[in-house]
């Protein structure tokens, strides 16, 4: 990254208003059996047994996306272990080495290009799950782009992402720390604009070849809640929450 862009990103990070966990959880926090980790730009509910997050949540705005100054290709961003978590209760970079799995961002780097600090914050293993490369670099990347597109359209979005374990097969793990490999990953989105609110929910299998488009993996938030046991956006008025969560959001085919 050119030095002038780097220092501009540092300056922007310094002058922006502080971000608090409450901002990311404005419309509710799903259950978390452990203390929620505040990473400033997103929050993490970490599972110390499986060494992956139960969920990751954050707020995103049109202004966040417009303030893009950082570029992943120009920065030296590498995943690192989370220093807030003790060894043996967290994933290490070595767990992913030669595992056949990518370090799949839950809060994606491309949503945090507003500063070098923000983008770098996403490269922490408490914000990742083992994902097959074909998924991580294919349909999952398309889904992340869809979230940014909807944020641009609506103005604001609240996003929760995490792993799902479906079926009765033995738990698959990687590395010396036995990092759990989910069978699926989910993403739920609450978009807010002057016109009202809209929800989207997605569930994707952790496979290298996911041939179908986003519309084939679109579900209701209610369904994701049944699979995960989590309750999203519970600070909405009850009637509004029920109405929004039972609708399957429309994803246009391209």
How are the elements arranged and paired?
Blueprint: H1 3-15, H2 21-24, E1 37-38, E2 43-47, E3 52-61, H3 62-66, H4 93-96, E4 102-105, H5 116-121, E5 128-131, H6 133-136, H7 139-154, E6 156-164, E7 172-174, E8 179-181, E9 184-193, E10 196-205, E11 218-219, H8 221-228, H9 238-245
Antiparallel strand pairs: 1-2, 2-3, 3-6, 4-5, 6-9, 7-8, 9-10, 10-11
Portion in helices: 25-40%
Please tell me the overall pLDDT: 90
Sum up the overall morphology in one term.
globular
What's the total number of strands? Answer: 11
Short description:
The protein is built from 9 helices and 11 strands. It has helices at 3-15, 21-24, 62-66, 93-96, 116-121, 133-136, 139-154, 221-228, 238-245, and strands at 37-38, 43-47, 52-61, 102-105, 128-131, 156-164, 172-174, 179-181, 184-193, 196-205, 218-219.
